[in-house]
Write the structure tokens for this entry.
Amino acid sequence: MTYHPDATAAVGHSPDVEAGVGVAPPPGCPAHAGHAGFGGPARPAAQGLPLYGPEFAADPHLFYERLRQYGPIAPVELSPGVEAYLITSYSLALEVLRDTERFAKDPRGWRALNEGRIPPDCPVGPMMMYRPNALFNDGEAHARLRGAITDSLARLDPYALSEYVERSADMLINGFADRGEADLLGDYAAVIPLLVFNELFGYPAEHGLHLVGIMAKLFDSGEDAAEANQELTDYMAGLIAAKRERPAADITSWMLAHPSRLADDELLQQVSLILAAGTEPQLNLIANALRLLLSDDRFAGELSGGSLPVQDAIDEVLWTDPPLANFGTRFARHDLDLAGVRIRQGEPILTSYAAANTDPELISDGRFGNRAHLAWSIGAHRCPAESPARVIASVAIEKLLDRLPDMELAVPVDRLAWRTGPFHRALTALPVRFPVTARPTAAAVPAAAAVPAEVSAPAPAAAPAQPHGASQSAPDASDTPGQSPRAAQRRRWGSLAAWWRGQ
């Protein structure tokens, strides 16, 4: 990928006019004045700024500032050798995310992949390669698959959802309240979405505990991973079979009855998409908001009925540290000029939701109550689960603060570590301490919550500083000649585990 500036483009960027950078780049431009991170060795001209490694994870906004010197769109490297463009401008993000004529979501036209320049074990492959679900399709195919998802999610009862979250929260808090310490990522935020979605799918609570165990083994990527892949396949297949036989008021049954008439394999793909997209970003939203509430003076009073409500903390995270920081991948349908940069057909363009949300051109006296951020994306592929995601996060946080009001971080906030990788804004752990509280007696615990406390799932493993050693996956195995459907399914779940990690 080579940077091709439009020599006629005007300097600067207007919300209403597509503009770009001039012929002479600003000092320190990553595409012209070789750069390998801050203080690193020089990089060749036109090679993108790397969005991986501990430096980027520690302070991504410093990288976004550097990229803005380049213009509203800049070349980046998602993992070694995997090049893309990243949009850092709010107005340009709106333009690209809404434009389905020039930009495709379907990655099967990815130029570098089709030219053999993306290896099968590429660590960012699981987040970018094609799957037959709503996320990776365009046009009528996308509308059909997305319709089944959005129509089913729209039928959720927010009050029932709140009850699911409260029951799950109480159960998990009971498991560590008498310890006086916990890792809110592994003990709480990583588990609640799985328990809640298990109920939303229509499976009994005991299957939720089983799902937590499956995902723990998948994330560990150890010798049990292959077994966990099969267990997750069996979980999904059993769920669909049970709902075909006995439908009820749940997402799976509603999708089965939807006019789109999804086949079982199509339904499995959409349910897995909901589970993947609804757990990793969800746990990061909960964890990042808790970090803010426990460390930011504006929110510190919240633990004792203070100044700013939980919803404002969630909105602040969605503006400044969205759980999915860089994504919205699009591929140019043909050669085109974008904000003064020549993009070739099939080259990937990502949107930095985090950078666009903090674009200096956005003028605002305050963000509280303002939800015009791009954390949920926009356009045809806007997240369909915004409302349930907010309910899950807010109820989970409020229940925790209500049960453990004297909770505090166990380490200084600047010592909390962030996972490496280009996509997610995710902590590796969130250790806290609090006064020990007695575990409720069995009579005081609702029947649905009276289950073993040892359900803690380790948070997704931190990606290595250099993605070469990350858990990796091949392209969709269903396209591999001579491979059995069951083997292909197992490989899909292996990719799903990496997808959850955002590698």
User: Anything to note?
Assistant: The two ends are 21 Å apart (CA to CA). Residues 303 and 405 are 5 Å apart (CA to CA).
